Each structure stands twice: as structure tokens, then as C-alpha cells.
Amino acid sequence: MNDPKLFQITAEDKAHYHELIEKIDIENKDSIIKFLGIKIQSMLDDGKLNSVETELIEDMTKLVKILELYNDLPDLVIKKVLFAMSYFIDENDEIPDIIPDYGYLDDITVVSWIMVDIQGQVPAMPRA
């Protein structure tokens, strides 16, 4: 289901997202993480997660850990992480989340793009 051909980020999308990333207020980090937790709990309570939703929850967990573990990240990296979280939280993004089987395809694409983008700027995560 995570077919990259179903939803792709264009250069125009990236330019728009970069504008939105610049507007992210790092001071809202705790609030964004709180709403993220509510969204994830709602998905878990629903009880029927598909593979894209499961991957998104795993990615969100990684992003929260990055913010918790590394206090000295550049502001731009923090803004990108918070943007990815905010995009996931927004139920009425490019593809509304309520559309069965397709609602999270844009989210997984945007989150994956951000994760690849910050990869070289974040230390390796310690293994549990």
C-alpha cells in the first residue's frame, strides 16, 4: 500500500512545505507532541491499523525520541521534525485522513521525506 507512485511530493510541494517549516514555532513543541499523542491514541483505540498507519506511528515515535534525546539539534531540524508531526496531526491535509486505505499516504510520504532530509543531521539513535 505504501506505493510511492500513489502520492509524490513535487518540487512545488517542497517549496511550499519549506515555507511552512520556516513558520513553525519551536516554543509549540510540547503542544505539538501532546496533540500527536492524542492522535496516536485515537488511532490505537480504533484498533484496525493498516501497514501505513503502523509505520507512521513508528516514525512518530522515532521523531519524538530524537527531540527528547538531542537537545542541541539545529533549530531547522527541530522545525522539520515538528512540521512532520504537525502534518500527521492535521486530519485535513492533502488527502484527508478519514479516507479508508488512502488517507495517510500523503502523511507517510511527507514524514519519510523529512526523515531522509534530517538523517545526516541527527546522531544515530541508541538501540534499546
Main features:
5 helices, mainly alpha, about 130 residues, single chain
Q: Over all CA atoms, what is the radius of gyration?
A: 14 Å
Counted by DSSP, the helix tally is 5
Number of strands: 0
- Uncertain residue segments: none
Number of domains: 1
- Average pLDDT for all residues: 91
Largest β sheet strand count, sense and barrel closure: none
Order of helices and strands: HHHHH
| Helix-strand makeup class | mainly alpha
Structure notes:
The protein is mainly alpha-helical. It has one domain. The chain contains five helices and no strands. It has helices at 11-23, 29-46, 51-69, 75-89, 105-118. The model has no long low-confidence stretch (mean pLDDT 91).
Brief summary of the model shown:
The protein has 128 residues and is mainly α. It has helices spanning 11-23, 29-46, 51-69, 75-89, 105-118.
Task: Show the helix and strand layout.
Blueprint: H1 11-23, H2 29-46, H3 51-69, H4 75-89, H5 105-118
